[in-house]
């Protein structure tokens, strides 16, 4: 009869160190990937801006009318 009562109770064993490490690595890689995509996008936009500026297609000087 003692075993029947023990089956229904969930026993908390504490945090799993291996699971916590895996969660941390996964989250770190995901956020790091997003950060790199953001950084690459900014680099591309900056390169495009300076390429257009060098070609003379755009100017940073306001023209007088």
Walkthrough of the structure:
This protein is mainly α. The chain contains two helices and no strands. The protein has one domain.
By helix and strand content, what is the structural category? mainly alpha
Q: Poorly predicted ranges (pLDDT <50, ≥5 residues)?
A: none
Count every beta strand, where a strand is a DSSP E run of 2 or more residues: 0
Q: In this structure, how is the largest beta sheet organized?
A: none
Return Rg in Å. Answer: 29 Å
Q: Can you count the helices? A: 2
What is the 3D shape? rod-shaped
- CA-CA gap between termini: 96 Å
- The SSE string, one letter per element, is HH
Q: What is the overall pLDDT average?
A: 87
Beta-strand percentage? Answer: under 5%
Total of domains: 1
Helicity, as a percent range = 55-70%
Keywords: Membrane, Mitochondrion, Mitochondrion inner membrane, Transmembrane, Transmembrane helix
Function: This protein is one of the nuclear-coded polypeptide chains of cytochrome c oxidase, the terminal oxidase in mitochondrial electron transport.
Subcellular location: Mitochondrion inner membrane
Family: Belongs to the cytochrome c oxidase subunit 5C family.
């Amino acid at each position: 009869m003692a075993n029947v009562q023990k089956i229904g109770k969930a026993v908390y064993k504490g945090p799993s160190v291996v699971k916590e490490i895996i969660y941390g690595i996964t989250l770190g890689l995901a956020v790091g990937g997003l950060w790199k995509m953001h950084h690459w996008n900014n680099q591309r936009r900056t390169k495009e801006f300076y390429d257009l500026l060098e070609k003379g297609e755009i100017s940073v000087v306001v023209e007088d009318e």
